[in-house]
Amino acid sequence: MGLNTVTLSGLLYTLKRQSTTGMTWRTPGAPLRPGSLYVQAERADTGTMITGTADVDGVISGTGVEGHVNASTGVVTVHFGEWVDGEDWTEASWYDPSLENEAGQVFRPLPVLADTVKYNCVVYSYLPLDADLIGLDPVRLPQDGRVPVFRKGDIAVVHHTDIDVLPNPLTAGHTATLSRGALSWVDLHDKNGLWVPSAGLYTVDLAAGTMAFADPLPDLAAYEQPFQVRHRREDMVLLGDVSINGTISAVAPLTHDYPADESLVSTVLPIGDLQAGTENEFTQATWTSVWSDSRVGSGTTAQFNLVQYPVEVTNKGAIGERWAVIFTGSDAFNIVGETVGIIATGYTSQDMAPVNPATGVPYFFLDHRGWGTGWSSGNVLRFNTRAAHYPVWVVRTTLQGPETEAEDSFTIQIRGDAN
After folding, report:
1. What does the alpha-carbon distance between residue 346 and residue 368 come to, in Å, rounded to a whole number?
2. DSSP for residue 362
3. Residue 259 and residue 132: Cα distance in Å, rounded?
4. Among the listed residues 262, 362, 273, 281, the one whose alpha carbon sits nearest the alpha carbon of residue 318
5. What is the rounded end-to-end Cα distance, in angstroms, of the chain?
6. Are the C-beta atoms of 314 and 361 separated by less than 8 Å?
7. What is the per-residue pLDDT for 17?
8. Separation between Cα atoms, residue 392 and residue 318, nearest integer Å
9. Whole-prediction pTM
10. SS3 for 188?
C-alpha cells in the first residue's frame, strides 16, 4: 500500500461565545429621562434572561444585575451577579473578603453572553425655542428648558391634607371633632366635591381641630351629603440646602410629623407688603373716551374736596382700575370703569359706594360732602384705584408625547399675614 496524503482545503470553525460579568458604555445621546433605562442579558451558564431597570436616582437594580446610570451624561455601568453569604464562597477564585458588606455578603459574579446585553432608554432632545412664541428670551433658560423649582434660601411650605367625613345627615348645632388639631386650613365639600361656603354655616377652631355648625342650619338642598372636611397641617420653612438628587433641607426642624407618601412641598413667591390705595385724581372739562393718567384738555371750575374727603378704599374691595365719574347733569353722574364699564349712577347729594360683586364690599367710597358746586353735563372726575394684589404670570407646559394621566391639576393659594 502506498502512503495516504491528506490535503486540507478548508475549515469551518466557531469561537466560544464571549462572556462578561460587567460592562460600561455611553448612550448615543444625553440627557436621559430619569428612570427610563432598561437592561437585559442572557446568562452564559443557564440561558436565563437577566433584567434590570434604573430608578429616578439612576440606581440600576434587578435579579442578577446592579449598577448606575448618570442621566446627565448617559454613562452606564452594570455588574451582573448576586449577593451571597461570603462564608459559603471563600474558596472561589473571585472571592475577596474585603468586598464583604456589613451583613457578611459578597457579590458573586454571574457571566452573561456579551452579545446578548441590550438596553433601551429615553433620550431628551430639544428644539430651539422661538422667542416670539414663548414671549421670553430663550437665552435666559437652561439648555434643557427646565427651570429649577427650589433654590437655597427660598421659602417653601411642607404640608399634608387629610379628609374627614361628617355624619349623614348633618344636624343643627353639631360640633365636629376632626381627626387632628393644630391645623392651618379647613374647607368643606359635599359628596360630589362641590365647595360649600362657610358663611352662616360653620366656624372653625384651627388649634383644637373642631367645627361648630349653626343652629338652625341654612338651606343645604343644593348639596349632596355626607359632607367632607378637608383639613391641612403645614410648616413654612427656609431652605438651607438643595441637592441635585432632589433632596431639600430646611434651616429649622419641622413642627409636625408628615406621612412621606402623602405630603407635598410647595414653592412660595414672596410678594411683600400690599395695600389698596388711590392715585391720579384730577378733573376734566369734557369726557373724550380716552383713558389717560393725565388731563386731556382743560380742567373744571368745580372741584371735589379730596383733602377733607379723600376717595376711600379697602383691601377687600378695591381693584386695579381707572375710574371716571361722568356728569350727566348738574348733580347726576355715572360711574364708569375702564374694564368694568358703567357700574352705578349717583347724585352729588348722596354718598357713593358701588359694591364689588366678587367680594361684597364697595370698590371705593365717595363722600357726598366733597362735591362742590358748578358741575355741568360732560364734566369728569378721574381717579385710579390700586388693588392689594400682585401680578403673577402663570405658565403651564406639557411635554410632547402620549397622554399618561387622565386628569391633572394644580392649586395656587394667596396667603398673607396682617399686622
Report:
1. 10
2. E
3. 44
4. 362
5. 122
6. yes
7. 81
8. 18
9. 0.56
10. strand
- Cell numbers standing for residue 210: 373642631
Cis check for the bond before 354: say yes or no (omega within 30 of 0). no
Average pLDDT (133-151) is 71
pLDDT in tens, 243-291: 877 889 999 999 999 999 999 999 999 888 889 999 999 999 999 999 9
CB atoms within 10 A of CB 359: 14
Contact between residue 106 and residue 81 where contact means Cβ atoms under 8 Å apart: no
Residues 51/60, Cβ–Cβ less than 8 Å: no
Q: Where are the alpha helices (DSSP H) in 117-237?
A: 131-134
Contacts of 275 (CB under 8 A, 6+ apart): 315, 388
pLDDT in tens, 338-393: 999 999 999 999 999 999 998 899 999 999 999 999 999 999 999 999 999 888 88
Question: What is the rounded CA–CA span in Å between residue 43 and residue 53?
Answer: 17
Q: Specify the residue for cell string 366678587.
A: 358
Q: Which among 378, 387, 366 has a CA at the least distance from the CA of 322?
A: 387
Length of the chain: 419
Take residue 333 and report the three cell numbers written for it.
Answer: 353722574
Q: Contact at 8 Å (CB) between 382 and 337?
A: no
Q: How confident is the model at residue 100 (pLDDT cuts 50, 70, 90)?
A: confident
Q: What is the dihedral of CA 148, 152, 154, 159, to 10 degrees?
A: 80
